[in-house]
Design brief:
- The complex is a heterodimer.
- By secondary structure, chain A is mostly helical.
- Chain A has three helices and one strand.
- Chain A has helices spanning 5-22, 27-49, 61-70, and one strand spanning 55-58.
- Mean pLDDT of chain A is 78; it is low at 61-71.
- The model of chain B has no long low-confidence stretch (mean pLDDT 87).
- The radius of gyration of chain B is 65 Å and the shape is rod-shaped.
- Helix content of chain B is 43%, strand content 23%.
- Classes of the chains: A mainly alpha, B alpha/beta.
- Strand 1 (55-58) of chain A pairs parallel with strand 7 (163-168) of chain B, so a sheet runs across the interface.
Chain lengths: 71, 398
């Protein structure tokens, strides 16, 4: 199953936090992870802030006709 | 001819039915395909596979039939026909029911379910996971029913981020199986995150169209996770069983397909706090550790040792100076003594050769003429001793 962009990013964000919380990374690495985490947070926030629901209606013309008769 | 009102028309039709002996006391057989219960009233459809007849029980408690009504049951119903003016619909008002066991449609349904089950169509392991944060959602339903409105309004409220592709298909009629299958295949090839298949929501729609093997195959083969909202709690279709997730209503389908934006935002904010907290704790810990390390380092500072060495060295220096001086003084004394001895020895040698020494009253050696004339006496030393002599100048030598 393909994962959405948001899902992938939020997973990466969660992984970074878990890594940081485990304390198993060096200080240098943890600062890099933090930077990366904040970057992801900003991206995720902007995705959520950017509402863009678009509705596309697909109706094949012959099907529409049949539909008109059928229902 | 003078036009008449619609209500008058229905009143006329109903009056005709009431006077027709067959229609007022009719016995019809068929298989129950759908049941809806609303307070005292029970609505259900019976079908012979081609046509559907709506039946209504106004008061269940007044009915002699004790058994459960269920989909697939073959029944014989006695009652009278009625045209329902508000919906322009013919209904059979039930007076008595006689159950005949499982019907043909039901047997066909059971056979299909069994076949598909054998082929693994319902296996939990082949169910695809419904994504948590869909970016694109396909909706396959009739655009006339309430379902599409319900779904779109839920999507708009819960998760306005996703793009929605609404595919219109009729869900009843001759070509509906073909159209539904086409719709599933079409939406699947768009690589959407999830597809919702819903019935239009009209109460007169039959779900038996979704009991088709071709539709089941299309759902099973689709790469996109599919949520079905075709049947309801007591009545479901084969498509519901094959779908990755089955829900009772179109609204529920839209809810299952999407997260609530507010919750997602709250989760994200919590994560933001966590990442801040964890880095702050880490930095605090590192500061503490480095302070402890510094303290350990400081505690082992070599300055004390150096100061110790310095004190030792100063002592040593003093000691060295004292003893060196002492040795020097001792040697000095010896040398002075030897020197005096040596001097005396040299003097004696000179005196032995016949030289004399003239000393003044203080026994200092007189080595110059100057002042000598004033002297009254001098000491003269010879090799064999000295004596005191009166001194007088006779003639001064130039």
């Amino acid at each position: 199953m393909k994962k959405s962009n948001y899902e992938v990013k939020v997973e990466q964000f969660e992984n970074i936090i878990s890594k940081l919380e485990s304390g198993q990374v060096s200080l240098d690495e943890s600062v890099l992870l933090y930077e990366e985490g904040i970057k992801l947070y900003n991206e995720l926030s902007s995705i959520l802030d950017n509402y863009q629901q678009k509705i596309e209606y697909i109706t094949l013309s012959n099907q529409k006709e049949k539909g008109d008769q059928g229902e | 001819m003078k036009p008449i009102g619609i209500t008058e028309l229905f009143n006329y039709i109903n009056s005709l039915i009431k006077t027709d002996p067959l229609l007022t006391q009719i016995s019809v057989e068929g298989e129950i395909t759908e049941i809806r219960i609303n307070n005292q009233q029970t609505y259900f459809n019976i079908s012979d596979g081609k046509s559907i007849l709506e039946c209504i029980i106004f008061n269940r408690s007044q009915l002699s039939y004790e058994g459960d009504l269920e989909v697939g049951l073959h029944v014989v119903i006695n009652g009278n026909l009625l045209v329902y003016p508000k919906k322009s619909r013919i209904e059979l008002v039930v007076r008595s029911i006689e159950a005949q066991g499982a019907g043909l449609l039901s047997n066909k349904f059971k056979q299909l379910v069994e076949d598909l089950a054998k082929q693994g169509y319902f296996d939990a392991k082949s169910k695809k996971k419904i994504p948590q944060y869909p970016e694109s959602i396909g909706v396959l339903t009739s655009h006339r029913g309430a379902a599409i409105k319900d779904i779109l309004s839920v999507l708009e409220r819960r998760w306005p981020l996703a793009n929605v592709v609404a595919y219109h298909t009729q869900v009843q009629g001759l070509h509906s199986v073909e159209e539904i299958t086409q719709g599933i295949t079409y939406l699947d090839q768009l690589s959407l995150d999830v597809i919702i298949i819903a019935r239009g929501g009209g109460s007169n729609e039959d779900l038996s169209v979704f009991n088709d093997k071709i539709i089941a195959e299309a759902i099973f083969k689709a790469g996109t996770p599919i949520i079905s909202a075709i049947g309801h709690e007591i009545d479901y279709s084969v498509a519901d069983l094959v779908a990755d997730k089955r829900v009772a209503t179109p609204t529920e389908a839209a809810e299952v397909a999407t997260p609530l934006l507010d919750t997602v935002k709250r989760d994200l904010d919590e994560k933001y706090l966590r990442i801040h907290q964890v880095i702050e704790e880490r930095l605090h810990l590192e500061t503490l550790t480095s302070t402890l390390k510094y303290n350990r380092f400081e505690n082992n500072n070599p300055i004390d040792q150096i100061n110790g060495y310095k004190t030792d060295l100063a002592h040593f220096y003093k000691y060295l100076k004292y003893y060196t001086n002492k040795i020097y003084l001792e040697n000095r004394k010896n040398i002075d003594f030897i020197e005096i001895k040596l001097q005396n020895f040299n003097q004696q040698k000179t005196l032995d050769q016949g030289y004399t020494l003239i000393l003044d009253e203080n026994r200092n050696i007189v080595s110059s003429l100057k002042g000598l004339n004033e002297k009254e006496f001098v000491y003269i030393r010879f090799a064999d001793g000295e004596g005191k002599y009166k001194f007088e100048l006779v003639d001064e030598e130039l």
